[in-house]
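Lab meeting prep.
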Amino acid sequence: MWLFNNPPKQALQQKYNFNITPAWLEHVQRASVRFNDGGSGSFVSANGLVMTNHHVGTDCIQKLGTKEHDYIKTGFYARTLQEEAKCADVELNVLMNMEDVTAHVNGAVKPGMDAATAEKARRAVINTIEKDSLDRTGLRSDVVTLYNGGEYQLYRYKKYTDVRLVFAPEKDAAFFGGDPDNFEYPRYDMDICFFRAYENGAPAKVEHYLKWNARGAGNEDLVFVSGNPGSTSRLDTVAHLEFLRDRSNPFIMNLIWRREVLLRVYSERDRENLRRAQDELFGIENSRKAYNGMEAGLQDPSLMAKKRAEEEKLRASVNQNPKLREAYGSAWEDVAATLKTLNGIFTDMFLLERGGAFHSRLFDIARTLLRLAEESRKPNSERLREYSEAGLESLKQELFSSAPIYNDLETLELGDSLSMYAEMKGEDNPLVQKVLAGKSPEARAGELVRGTKVGDIADRKRLAAGGLQAIEESNDPMIQLARLVDPESRRLRKIYDDQVDEPRRQAYGKIAKARFAVYGTGIYPDATFTLRLSFGEVKGYEENGKQISWMTTMGGAFEHAAAHGDQEPFHLPNSWMQHKAQLDLSTPLNFVNTCDIIGGNSGSPVINRSGELVGIIFDGNIQSLVLDYIYSDKQARAVAVSSAGILEALRKIYGAERVLSDLGMK
């Protein structure tokens, strides 16, 4: 997962005889798109057409739908520019440039500062750097922490906030095989959709976009993936990995199971419930499989033995050099000390500061209004990071989004999370008693949802405009709940910032410098949901003594459906069945490659040597789930939709002439 300003030039030249030029990198970088709520994509036409995965776009597709028009089920196609449907709360980011600000950030933390003072100083300088950059360039400006604190870079993004849906297939085609096939291979999914970015009410004109390769990728081709991998833990200490294995992951997995059961029961009551909940349910199901695979990796003795050996080798090199030992030798113990502190606040931090006890969009809105009012009264340098001036425009776009809120689902989820809060802390806990106000969790949730007005955009804007006085005078029950729990939430946040995050940054910064001193700087950092470039080959693999092909075909999708009796979730939509005779069934549909991906890469373009699009990432196989912690190309594979299969479907199944014209493939 290489940085665009530190690409693996030597490896590509030696292994593939490929000279990766600055012009190639700039073109791919500026054609790549980040969906700010999670996911990747790419410009595929000069008129602002963006392709991503259906499951990345599902949130918008679902919100555009109604009880009468379920676009998740039926699909969507805008036959004219006027029919392109505006999403409520989608923001696209295009990385324009990067600047190393490590010296500036670290220079604010003076020798001898205690952790709390250092955290305040680091937060202040980062907020200031971002604000100064925004004022100077007009671009979204984010200081990105790399190597867990070893480096800091300022990333500047062009933003698109007017984003409209152009085309989406039916879910039965996009997520064919459903949860049973998720993270499996072979796959037969048309997991794509198209949006368009607008500027000033018209389609955006973009210089850099990926030209479509009609043939698609071939076996053993060199390919690249440009996307925004969410997070990895490959540079974490062994103690940190053990904390994830023994404390964090099991806690999250139990929560996932709880929410999945809740949403599944709700969704099975009727079709409208399913339409409302299916995007969140998909995310929960996806997370369940992902965490199961991640935890299995950490429970694998051979993986942990390899991580221990790597750590012991680095520490031995550090300890053999007196200067390195003095500067960095204690860093691993320092990380362990922060984990001990984190363990003591882990549950309360999740329940209160992370909002786990109040799983509700309405509560999130109320707390955002409260903290926006409080933080706006402070100098920018002293604000919580998420309320700094540089990020306020994006925060307010989400806060004032017109996305629908379903009160029955809100009540259900809030009631369940309040029940979980009481279970974990005990009903005798003073704060639990105040939160529940003498009622059962379900009754209290109903009271809060029925009584609040923050679901109304006009009311949100009124409270935001009125500032802290309006918040303090409000009798809205959800605002009052947010005010009730916020002091304890902030107390936990301060402990985390001062005693966990800041000392851990410093410790990992030392470990990063130790790595650079011992191994050089040719090391990529862990994923941070920022743009990265990975490379690999189109290649099958062996599993249980059987060779797994590098690709599947359109015909294979029909065979897969027939093998399962054409029953959900192995049911192809009627549009596919009606046009089967017109299809070239040998056309590649999905393919696998050895590129390094993780969650967040969904929607990333797969690119050939010429910078052309040959596919789009939508999943990894089951063997890829350990990539959070260690990379291997023995069996782990990224799974993509072929550009050839997409063309075949657009032409012969959907008749999507406008999209084909945009792609230069009419």
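Slide two material, second protein:
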Amino acid sequence: MNWKSVVVLAVVVAGLGGFDYYDTYWLAPARDKAESIKGRLWTVEPKDVESIRIKRPAEIVRLKWAVGGGWEMLEPVKALGDRATIDDVVTSLVTVRRDREIDPNPAKPVDFGLDPAAAEVQLEVKGRKEPLVLQVGAKSPTGAWVYAREGGKPAVMTISEVVGRDTGRPVADFRDKTVIAFDKKTVSGLDLEVGGDRISLLAEAPRKWQIVKPAAYRADGDVVSDFLDKLDAARVKEFVAESPPSLAPYGLDRPATATIWTGKDKDRSSKTLLFGRGDVDKKGVYVMRAGEPGVMLVPDELWTAFPKTVAALRDKTVVAYQQDKVDRVEIESPKGKVVIARDGTGWKITAPDAVQADSGAVSSLLWSLRDLRASAFLSDAPADIARFVKKPEVTIRIWEEGAKEPKTVFVGPSPEVRGGKPAAVAAVEGQGPVALVDAKALGDLAKSEMDLRDRSLFPAFELADVKRARLMAAGKPVVVERSGESDWKVLEPSRGSAKGDKVTNLVLGLKSLRWKDIVSPKGDDPSRYGLDHPELEVSLYKGDGAELGTLLVGKQEGAVTYVRVKAAQAIYAVDSQLLSDIRKAPTEVQG
């Protein structure tokens, strides 16, 4: 190929590439646009509509695009518009297509519902001097279309029934349903007033609030946040009246108020919502925005969430601490004194005996303490603790990492009954308040060493740690060995396959086995418990041959069976039902 041919080919390729680019980025969009407007009454786009006027026999609805963005209603009342609804209506109108022409010049437009029209729409469009006009009449016999005609033209045509539906919407559909607009992230304060009593709160951090009036208290962040969340999400159920002659029928002549403060310092501003009476039949409550004449009905759940008293707003937490920072706990109760300390990721009991603790039981205790909530406040003065908690039944001291002194919680009995339930009294030493709590806290927090001890019989292990298991029953051994990750094989009494699910049940049963009581701490009198000649002996081994543990199963007495771990002295009583899979294993594991 000579150089001239190469040049010609290069020119052709470049030309084809240029045409492809031109077609993709210029011609194709133009074709798509032409196709999209084909058959439309008008060739304008929704974004170019600046105002809408819908004239109906009984009213006029006038909407205008606001300078700052969004729609506003100018008639029949001045209000914010519902952007989503109005955008849908605008799109429906500007993209409407003619189905067919029914009559080029009807003698009786009234026959088509066009004299007068059910609705006459005027759209003011950017760049056009005259508005676009559409008269919408009655539905066609099929109900799928409505009769219509363009303004100034006599011909009657059919168009989509959607246009008839949109132009006949109630005025309320075009109004913004937001009850009160605010940005939750910028809320810095909240004032509440009910029956002349005022409560003021300040935001300290996300979901952390402080009551500053009528007195300084920690606020319940969840209660405040729940109210603000419901206020932000609330939508108007009904626009009841625009300028009623009296507010008394709605309970708004003496309203409760909620004032939301946003921003700080010179940028601080507020919005207030007035609450009137509830309407049981409509499941709502009447409200007004301060400075606006309209009465609205909103869901009654908003009034339910309104915190009406200081007591409702106060933080009910009796003792606040970070559970993951606790490294030591002391408990004194009628069950005795117990001291527990963090041991790596778990816990150990250091007194009265040095034994391993059940991490689940310790966590449950700490959760019970952290979840302790006041049902009422008896006093805010630390000096009153001794008067209300004369003799604590339970005392718990908690040390957090880095703290020199513990937080000490006193819990004692109380003659009070709240909500039909007996109460107890609780307080933190040196702090207020003194609070009433559920009396079940006395039982939840009074823990003995036995309550908190680790009751596992086998040392901790994972299922994958077990390579081999040996079972001895009636003098006959059964040995199984792991083959791969989940398969097992029998080595004794004869080689063969094993039932993997039964072996897994056996291993999991040993791992989860817990004792109920220690019947013989030093293992005295094993014959009394059938452990001089055990009914069953089960041993687990690691891959290197090291023994994980051996369980000896003795005599059953009623609901309990006596067992012992070979490496320890103590004899335990366990729930007989927990040994069900273990007892059946010698016969069931063999394939």
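Talking points for slide two:
Residues 3-37 form the longest helix (35 residues).
The longest strand covers residues 407-418.
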